[in-house]
Design brief:
Blueprint (H helix, E strand, L loop, with lengths): L1 E3 L11 E5 L7 H17 L2 E8 L2 H5 L13 H9 L5 E6 L2 H4 L3 H13 L1 E7 L12 H11 L2 E5 L1 H19 L3 H8 L12
Parallel strand pairs: 1-4, 2-3, 2-5, 3-4, 5-6
Helix pairs in contact: 1-7, 5-6, 7-8
């Protein structure tokens, strides 16, 4: 897996199959999407690409100040987990004021199409993007014929499982119920850091 931190120096992707999300925890729900991503890319002889943002948009925008987002993984941990699932490319996009102010259709044309040349985009029906989150699945579908890519919708039940799982995992870890958290993750949860006295 190639890790890209500078979106101005991305390779020239051919037949890119992309998905976009935080993938915090890379748990069983995420793994369903990753399998679909990798399988779709293999079927067309293309590249599988996960696009994620740093810092997390909710943290940058401060949309939940009363309940701050406590992420399950650092960027490094997330990258290590994603690598295990056969992803070809992980792109870390700096989420800043300029990016947050991008109009929804410009997000599609200037960010996704120009930088990734996508063959297929895999997203959920509730995926929001662009300035003030005005872009949605319907706009993506509408633009797909205009810009020449396919859109695959992640089923609602998978998205519901992901939302439930992420919340449940955080709760179970906070309560010290690691075996239950591990069942939802599909692997043993761990922390990385410097041990100090």
């Amino acid at each position: 897996m190639q890790l890209h931190k500078d979106i101005t120096k991305l390779p020239s992707f051919q037949k890119a199959v992309i998905t976009i999300g935080s993938f915090d925890g890379v748990h069983l729900g995420h793994q369903t999407i990753l399998k679909q991503l990798v399988d779709t890319a293999k079927n067309i002889g293309g590249s599988s690409i996960v696009i994620t943002f740093f810092p997390h948009p909710k943290i940058f925008l401060g949309t939940h100040p009363s309940t701050p987002v406590k992420l399950l993984n650092t960027i490094e941990e997330k990258a290590a987990l994603l690598k295990k699932y056969g992803i070809d490319h992980l792109v870390l996009v700096p989420f800043n004021a300029e990016f947050a102010a991008m109009e929804a259709e410009n997000y599609i044309s200037e960010f996704l199409v120009r930088r990734f040349n996508p063959h297929t985009i895999i997203i959920g029906h509730d995926h929001k993007f662009g300035k003030e989150r005005t872009g949605d699945f319907e706009l993506m579908k509408k633009c797909s014929s205009k810009y020449g890519f396919e859109v695959i919708e992640i089923p609602e039940y998978v998205l519901s499982d992901i939302a439930i799982s992420s919340t449940s995992i955080r709760e179970k870890i906070n309560q010290g119920e690691l075996p239950a958290a591990n069942r939802l993750l599909g692997y043993e949860y761990s922390l990385t850091g410097i041990i100090t006295k």
